[in-house]
Amino acid sequence: MTSTHTRSKLPIAGVAVAMVTALAACSSGSGSGSASSPGGDGGETTPAKPVPTIKISPVKGTAKVRPDKAVVVTADNGSLEEVVVESNGVPVEGEFDADRTKWTSKGPLKPSSKYTVSAKATGEGGPTEANSQFSTLKPKFPLAVADITPGVKGETVGVGMPIMVTFNQSVTDKASVEKALQVKAEKPVDGAWRWMSSKQVIYRPAKYWPAHQKVKFTANLAGVRGGKDMYGVKNSSATINIGAALISTVNVKTHMMYVKKDGKTVQTMKISAGKGDTREYTTTSGVHLTMERANPVTMISPGKKEGDPGYYKEVVNYAVRISNSGEYVHSAPWSVGSQGYANVSHGCVNASPAQAKWFYDNFHRGDVVKITGTSRILESWNGWGFWQMSFKEWEKGSALK
């Protein structure tokens, strides 16, 4: 009986163990979240913070990128720590937005160049980096400065001297090119560019340059769009030395010329001007600039051949050009008797050999020669007659409104 009693209890005990086991399993399952959470305090699983994402434009491997296209780097889920864009070790300038989620390059890129981009960003999900590279196109029409006048190294010029820039291509996007031209003077004055043609643009101050200073001209053309398939390929610059204010005043009616240097009269000259019996032989009134000099110059009557009425061929010394219509200040020993008394020339302003030589030796390109007393007015396009135009009218020729 005892043995049978023992066997009867075994199944009951077995059932009890199984129930405990089941309860234990049930208890374990209901507490699984508590077991996996940090500290076992019963909280939910904390999601991972997103790592910042960096995007770069132009995209990696892009070729033939337009030089006027900006490089843009952006960051999502974080902020940009550093952006470096360079070509052959030369960095590209750029700026971040207020919250440093965007960086944009400033100014154009160089044509026919390879660029690398590296960027770093950081956020709650940690730091990240990105790198890229691209190349810019080779322009079909490479734009460059063909000439800068004045541009002779070491030359000193007068206070009326304009800055004349000639390009190797015909520019159609004049506003973009003009924006790339900079003039910085030690003694700044207002000034403006005026397009004379699709290949030439000229800078003139509103008033004469202040004397005795340096003016720096820079054409930041590299990458600038000049027209369809046309981009600047290199920058150019020139330093211009402005000398003394050498201003000459000629009165054709009184036959006199006065030269002032920095406001002080340094030369009083008796002169003879154009005899005025024809338009051709009438000296032009207006603001002239000295342009070039030569000794001697052979002057031949325009549009006439030997034997024609009014034909002349004369060799003159100490000749300083003041227009493109054949006007000079020069020596005329044959008309010394008329100088100070009568106008007998073919349109030039002539003086005694000694005083003409003085003028020849002391002038600079861009010095001012004001002539009054005749009915013929100097055209603004005749030589360097740019001062014939008011500044208000002059600046209308700018492409920048």
TrEMBL record:
The active site is at 330 (proton donor/acceptor), 348 (nucleophile). Residues 27-54, 96-133 are annotated as: Disordered. This is L,D-TPase catalytic domain-containing protein. Pathway: Cell wall biogenesis; peptidoglycan biosynthesis. GO terms for biological process: cell wall organization; peptidoglycan-protein cross-linking; regulation of cell shape. CDD domains: LDT_IgD_like_2, YkuD_like. It comes from Planotetraspora kaengkrachanensis. Residues 246-372 form the L,D-TPase catalytic domain.
